[in-house]
Amino acid sequence: MKLSEIRDILQCEVLAGEDDLSTEVETVVASDGMSEILAFAHPGALMITGLTNIQSVRTGDIANVRAIVYIRGKRPAEKVIDLARESEIPVLATGLGMFDICGILREQGLKGDM
């Protein structure tokens, strides 16, 4: 599924990586625990989290995720978005919660990353 489709389905605002929305995603990892992201993510996964500090982008970079979706209407600080741009990681934000997002993406055929 393309990031542009995920943006539309989850009603996301694109905060970084507007030009990278044609990127394909097949798997998802969802957690507020960055150690879980590192332990269970496969390269190319979509990362879903409510943790908006700079560590979330650093973790996404190390885990080689395709994009990050921030949940529950949370918005990272500008320095976090700047780091995502530098790391070439698209960043999206949605008002939906993690449970709903995971269910929606599962219905669309995306797989969990465990």
3D architecture notes:
- The protein has 114 residues and is an alpha/beta fold.
- It has one domain (3-112): HprK N-terminal domain-like (Udp-n-acetylmuramoylalanyl-d-glutamate--2,6- Diaminopimelate Ligase, Chain: A, domain 1).
- The chain contains 5 helices and 6 strands, in the order H-E-E-H-E-H-E-H-E-H-E.
- The chain has helices at residues 3-9, 34-40, 54-62, 78-86, 98-107; strands at 13-16, 27-30, 46-49, 67-70, 91-93, 111-112.
- A 6-stranded mixed sheet has the order 1-5-4-3-2-6, sandwiched between helices.
- Helix 2 (34-40) links the parallel strand 2 and strand 3 (46-49).
- Helix 2 (34-40) packs parallel to helix 3 (54-62) and helix 3 packs parallel to helix 4.
Q: Write the CATH architecture name.
A: 3-Layer(aba) Sandwich
Q: CATH superfamily, called what?
A: HprK N-terminal domain-like
Number of helices: 5
Low-pLDDT residue spans: none
Q: Which range best describes the helical content: under 10%, 10-25%, 25-40%, 40-55%, 55-70% or over 70%?
A: 25-40%
**Rg from alpha-carbon coordinates:** 12 Å
Give the beta-strand count. Answer: 6
Q: What's the CATH class, please?
A: Alpha Beta
How many structural units, i.e. domains? 1
What is the strand arrangement across the widest sheet? 1-5-4-3-2-6
Outline, from the CA principal axes?
globular
Order of secondary-structure elements: HEEHEHEHEHE
Chain-wise SSE layout:
Elements: H1 3-9, E1 13-16, E2 27-30, H2 34-40, E3 46-49, H3 54-62, E4 67-70, H4 78-86, E5 91-93, H5 98-107, E6 111-112
Parallel strand pairs: 2-3, 2-6, 3-4, 4-5
Antiparallel strand pairs: 1-5
